[in-house]
Amino acid sequence: MARDDWFGLKSGKARKLARKSADAVPDGLWIKCPKCGEILFNKELEKNLRVCNKCGYHYKLGAMQRIAMTVDEDTFEEIATGLRPGNPLDFPDYEDKLEKDRKTTGLEEAIVVGTAAIGGRRVVIGAADFTFRGGSMGSVYGEKIVQAVEKALDERLPVVLFCCSGGARMQEGILSLMQMAKTSAAIARMSAEKLPYISVLVDPCTAGVHASFASLGDVMIAEPGALIGFAGARVAQQAGVINRPPNFQQAEFQLDNGMVDMVTPRKELRQTLIKILQFCCEDIGNAA
Amino acid sequence: MPPSASNILDFEKPIAELEAEIEDIKRLTAEQGVDRSEEIAILEQHRDRLMEQIFSRLTPWDKTLLARHPRRPYTLDYVRLLFDDYTELHGDRLFTDDKAMIGGLGTFDGRQVMFVGQQKGRDLKERQFRNFGSAKPEGYRKALRLMKLAEKFGRPIIAFVDTPAADCSVGAESRGISEAIARNLMEMSALKVPIIIAILGEGGSGGALGIGVGNSVLMLEYAIYSVIPPEGCAAILWRDPAKAPEAAAALRITAEDALRLGVIDEVVPEPLGGAHRNPDLTARTLKTAILRNLDELCSMTGDELAAQRYQKFRAMGQFLTMPELAEIDAAAG
Ligand SMILES: [Zn+2]
Q1: CA quadruple A182, A186, A188, A190: dihedral, nearest 10
Q2: Which percentage of chain B shows pLDDT scores above 90?
Q3: Do residue B194 and residue B278 come from a single domain?
Q4: Nearest CB partner across the interface for B227, out of A82, A168, A188
Q5: Is B136 a member of any domain?
Q6: Res. B1 pLDDT band, cuts 50 70 90
Q7: What is d(CA A112, CA A129) in angstroms, rounded to the nearest whole number?
Q8: Number of structural domains, chain B?
């Protein structure tokens, strides 16, 4: 598959975003796999959907890259735009940090939502981006998810969310915590309307996001090796969590404990989504 | 629990010293039969003034310490003071009975209600028994089971929040602590009976919110409600847990802040000196507030209740939208 094929988006802006919001591919030709130490050609890595061809290590993806890799070519249209975090708590340095992340990622927040087609079926899709404030959920993140769900309710579409987050955004304090309730309540409405919601848990999916909409998918998929869990690493360390199994809080640990339906390699993800959508929605989101 | 060196906060010490002095004089009066009531009255006046002074300028960190005060009344203390009758119900029907999350049938001002809440322990043994008020998945699932029961029989739900955080041990993670909390958030948003939440002490993050989705959310004056403990925030921001007081201020965790940010509906005032100085009075004030909210909510239909709760949480969060952004950009030239 040529690189442009899975880069579905053709518009200049989207291409630029996709490049910018990656978990920064260094400019060099080479990159060393953090898991097995293999030296990988950047070009080869891109072709392999940013998965190490030796050990299967899944690199993080930027939001636009993720969407491009998942949807039918040229079908993504962003919605819920024009929202920007304020600084409701007057939290020290928050505005500067946001400004820096906006510049380095080209994103307005840690999540992008929109409509697209997957295998010819119209869906609402969202993907979070770890490079923007660690994918943390604040007011805008929560609002975008709810607006995405509202779009799905209005047009009777399925929802696919790539859940990536270090947790609730500390700098928006208690307002961030409330996004857990706000997003989960929106998912309840989807459920009541019998509209399918697939959550894909990607590295890392922790804390406030894991303990809200990410864990409410009708079907839950995890990417191999993804860190998935309630307590963020630092919180767990502070709380002195003991007797951790070696794969504690990894996708495979969550699978063993019955907390996700499957651990699916990136290469098979799109086809898996198409299959699940086919089961969940005989006549929901069909292009016809 | 009587006051002792180990359960008096630093800023309470001047008050405690004056009170010890008053006690001494009272004892001497009893022993020697000398009337020193005038002197006592002056000292008591002095104490009250001092207390007003101290409590009028509490920092967010002082309030954090009050919320965690070892003598602060806990959930069961209020249950005893507020309910005419209480029958505890146990277990999640799936795994076990979580002692950090309690619940049961209550009679509240002559009405049948379902009660759920986190329970902390007073002494070391009890603290361990209650897992320091940190519930595991089975606690949240028990709470949900009881709330569903309330919905089934059309009874209102009263939930008391007092937890440092949900349990994050390997066991809790293995049994899906995230899923348990997420499910509660989802299910509570749609329940068709009145839900009244009262945050009594520590409103610790997802662990608190896991039973915190209500039509009315009340909060005691010196309770805190936070996305992360101040110590944790300080460790992340400044790599120094000792900077917790600064973090407590930055995070806006007081009841006053929560009200201003639209996260709670009402601050329930505490007696001068905090709830632990007069649990009876605190309970009476809380009861009045709950009753008023209950009366309002009981006039609504199930659908109206679910819709009101949904809209309330739907509206939470603060951000800038396009017109505001355009203005900012224009101003920036
Ligand atoms: Zn590798």
Answers
A1: -170
A2: 88
A3: yes
A4: A168
A5: yes
A6: low
A7: 8
A8: 2
Instruction: Assess whether pLDDT exceeds 80 at residue A287.
Output: no
- Long-range contacts for B23-27 (Cβ within 8 Å, ≥24 apart)? none
Residues B102 and B209 in one domain: yes
DSSP B267: E
pTM for the whole structure: 0.93
Residues of B in contact with A189 (CB under 8 A): 310
Scanning every residue of chain B, which has its alpha carbon at the shortest distance from the alpha carbon of A177?
B227
Do B38 and B127 fall into the same domain?
no
Classify residue B218 by its DSSP letter.
E
> Chain A contacts of B310, Cβ < 8 Å?
185, 189
B93 confidence band (pLDDT: 50, 70, 90): very high
Block residue for tokens 């277990």: B91
Report whether pLDDT(A260) > 90: yes
- Please give the Cα distance from B140 to B142 (Å, whole number): 5
Q: Which residue has the tokens 């995405």?
A: A148
Residue B257 shares a structural domain with residue B175: yes
Q: Does domain A60-280 have CATH number 3.90.1150.10?
A: no
Q: What is the DSSP letter of A165?
A: E
List chain A domain ranges.
60-280
Distance A58 CA to ligand 1 centre (A): 8
Residue B265 lies in a domain: yes
Q: Are residues B22 and B86 in the same domain?
A: no
- What does pLDDT average to over chain A? 89
pLDDT score of A237: 67
Does a structural domain hold residue B289? yes
Chain A / chain B CB contacts < 8 angstroms: 195
ipTM at complex level = 0.96
Residues B308 and B164 in one domain: yes
Task: Give the Cα separation of B76 and B102 in Å (integer).
Answer: 9
Query: Is B69 among the domain residues?
Result: yes
pLDDT over threshold 50, residue A20: no
Q: pLDDT at position B91, please?
A: 98
- pLDDT given at position B32: 85
Residue B38, domain extent: 5-57
Would you put residue B167 in left (φ > 0), alpha (ψ -120 to 50) or beta? Answer: beta
Sort out which chain B residues have CB atoms less than 8 A from A239's CB and list them. Answer: 165, 168
Interface test with A, best of B140, B173, B325 (most A CBs within 10 A): B173
In this model, does residue A102 exceed pLDDT 80?
A: yes
Residue A2 has pLDDT above 90, yes or no: no
Q: Report how far ligand 1's centroid is from the alpha carbon of A53 (Å).
A: 7
With cut-offs at 50, 70 and 90, classify the pLDDT of residue A130. very high
